[in-house]
Amino acid sequence: MEHVVTLQLDGEKCIGCGMCLEACPRRVLLWATDEEHPMQMLIKVVISVSVIVLATALARRFPLLAGLIGVMPLTGALVLVWVYLENGGDPQIMQSFAKGAFWGILPTLLFFFVAFLCLKKGCSLPEVLAAGFAAWTAAAFLHQWLLK
Q1: How far apart are CA 48 and CA 40, in angstroms?
Q2: Which pTM value belongs to this model?
């Protein structure tokens, strides 16, 4: 057939940068799933765990900074990158993710507000987490119901 090009990816040379997705003018290339390329999953895990370890390490000396790092948009930005790569940059999926994340801040704020109040009252950590997650869960259901 005329004007048909077949591409073949050399998995041994692929470093998972996603540049082939950017270069593809017809957006026919798709990012493989984690099951197909376990290295991509490993990279996600290493980056995500590194952020958690950093915040935890800083918490002893700089608890306010650790709190800021723990809720910073880095997590959202990482997920945004993974969603972009795995969905070929589909603008509809990206926009929906950003909308869900934006409004998802409210249940998260409620979680930390309830946790703060419980800690102020001297509750144990299990009580703090149970109350915080109960508040977050209720707000998350409301979030999903309102955004449908």
Answers
A1: 12
A2: 0.60
Q: How far is CA 23 from CA 2, 6, 89, in A?
A: 21, 15, 12
Number of H helices, E strands in the chain: 6, 0
Residue 62: is its pLDDT beyond 80? Answer: yes
* 147 or 128, greater pLDDT: 128
H or E segment to which residue 135 belongs: helix 125-147
How far is it, in rounded angstroms, from Cα 44 to Cα 22? 20
Q: How many Å apart are CA 134 and CA 47, to the nearest integer? A: 28
Supply 84's token pair: 């972009």
Place of tokens 């390490």: 57
Polymer length in residues for the chain: 148
CB atoms within 10 A of CB 21: 18
Task: Kindly state the percentage of the chain with pLDDT values over 90.
Answer: 28
